[in-house]
Structure formats: C-alpha cells, structure tokens
Amino acid sequence: MAVTRIKKAGLFDGFGFQCADRSRTLSENTHTHTHVQIRLSVVHVSFCTFEQAMAGPRPVVMSGPSGAGKSTLLKKLLKEFDGVFGFSVSHTTRSPRPGEENGKDYHYVTREVMQAAIANGEFVENAEFSGNMYGTSKAAVQAVQAKNLICILDIDMQGVKNIKKTDLNPIYVSIQAPSMDILEKRLRDRKTESEESLKKRLDAAKVDVEISKEPGLFDVIIINEDLDAAYGKLKDTLLEVTFSSLNFHHPECNGMRF
Ligand SMILES: Nc1ncnc2c1ncn2[C@@H]1O[C@H](COP(=O)(O)OP(=O)(O)OP(=O)(O)O)[C@@H](O)[C@H]1O
Ligand SMILES: Nc1nc2c(ncn2[C@@H]2O[C@H](COP(=O)(O)O)[C@@H](O)[C@H]2O)c(=O)[nH]1
What we know:
The chain is α/β, with parallel strands linked by helices. The chain is built from 9 helices and 12 strands. It has a 5-stranded parallel sheet with strand order 5-10-4-11-12. The longest helix is centred in the C-terminal third of the chain and has 17 residues, at 195-211. Residues 66-72, 186, 189-190, 224, 227, 230 line the site of adenosine-5'-triphosphate.
C-alpha cells in the first residue's frame, strides 16, 4: 500500500516558521504522489500568510450544480481519508431526506432559528437555494479545524462568491455533470426532488455552469462522468494544488521536490 504520511512537526522548519501540530495519514494514494513524507505546515507557508499558516491547512470548497455528484465524491474522500478531511456541517431549513442525520449531513433548523443566528453573526456565509436557506456557521468550520482536519465545505455558487470575500482561503473545486440531460437524470433517479424543486435546481445549474467558466473562480473543474475517474481527479487535485507549486526539499521527502 502506498502511503503518504503527513507528520506531526512541532519544530522550526526551513522557512523559520514554527510548524503547527499536525498528524495525518493519507492512505492508499494510488496516483502520482506515493511514498512521500511531507510537513503539511510548510506547505501553508508557501501559500498563505503567517496567520493562515498558523491557523491550519487550506480548507476545500466543493461546489457545482445540484445532482452533479459532490456528496457522492465527498463521502468517498471522507471515508478513504478518515482523519485527514472533515466535513463542515451546514445548516439548512430544508427537511431531512431519508437516511440523512441531523448534525451529520446538516443541522436542520427552522427559518426563524437560522435568520436569528445569521443576524447574530454566527455564519461565515449563507444562501437561499431552491426555496430553502443554507449556511456555513463559524462553529461548523471551527469544529473541523479544532480536530486538526482539513475542512471541506459543500456549498452552492452564492456560497462560493461569499466565501471569496472572507479570509478562509480555500481551494475551490467545481464538480459538474457531463451534460444537463445527465444532470436531470441523476436528480430524477435520486428521487429527492418534487417537480418544482427539480426545475429550480436545473435552472440554477444552467446559471452555475456559465458562472463557473469565469477565469480564476475555481482552481479546478471536474466533470463527473465516470465516478472512479472523477474521484481520482479529485484526489490528484487536492494533492497537486496543495503541494505542486512548492519548490521545497526536505530530508523526509526522500529526494522528491514539490
Ligand atoms: N459519476 C456518476 N455516475 C452516475 N451517477 C452518479 C455519479 N455521481 C453521482 N451519481 C448519482 O447522482 C445522484 C446525485 O449525486 P449527489 O447527490 O452526490 O449530487 P450532489 O452534487 O451532492 O447534489 P446536491 O447538491 O443536490 O446535494 C446520486 O443519486 C448519485 O448516486
Ligand atoms: N451556500 C451554501 N450552500 C450550501 C450549503 N450547504 C449545502 N449547500 C448547497 O445547497 C445545494 C442543495 O443542497 P441539498 O443538500 O439540498 O441537495 C447544493 O448545491 C449544496 O452545495 C451551505 O452551507 N451554504
């Protein structure tokens, strides 16, 4: 099994910054970055301000049309990299779907509760989508970061635009379906939407796909046609975007440069 181990550092690295306390194991990386030992905190120094470096790894924003496959890919990632990535549990006013758990998939709240919490400054971002409110609370992000996990947010396009105005500094990934017809089929087959909600989601999807072409909005756009291929691309991306522009050599990297 190929293993990428991101070790607890806890000492001064070559950049003169004290490394944060991190202990991660990325298992079964079947792609290009194998048998590599790196210090994740050094990576932050190359991409972030000192404050961000001390705050922890860059979060990951996953966005894209409803039905494109974000949750499916995320679940695979969270399962494979248990102990590395953590999901930011959003709030929503929509009803739970069969199988969804309060506090795990979402925090299910009333519109009144959510509006009060937003007014109280408890949210990083929030949006109205397909007739319901959704939002990322500060507590949700902090809960993940407190566990020293890389925080993953699953948010819509309004959320992406709003997060861009914050200092969260995430990696932005857009997951898209190969076509609108396939997207509609996936949403219909999922059997979670009424005709009205389906139409709203498909209308939003058309706008999303256009906006996502804006240069620089996303670090990568992944077309989720074949699930395994899309998942491989997602994993490669998260490693590459994090490490590739770092011209860094460390004895623990066995001669490899990033
Ligand atoms: N590559 C794929 N090929 C075929 N079906 C897929 C693929 N990826 C996901 N699906 C299916 O498409 C449906 C929508 O996927 P999923 O729920 O993950 O989308 P989503 O982007 O998270 O949607 P939402 O934003 O509404 O939460 C699911 O039933 C899922 O099993
Ligand atoms: N701006 C935000 N968008 C969010 C958040 N949580 C989820 N979402 C997005 O909502 C739609 C619909 O989700 P569904 O679970 O009802 O299918 C989807 O695009 C999600 O990405 C959030 O906290 N903020």
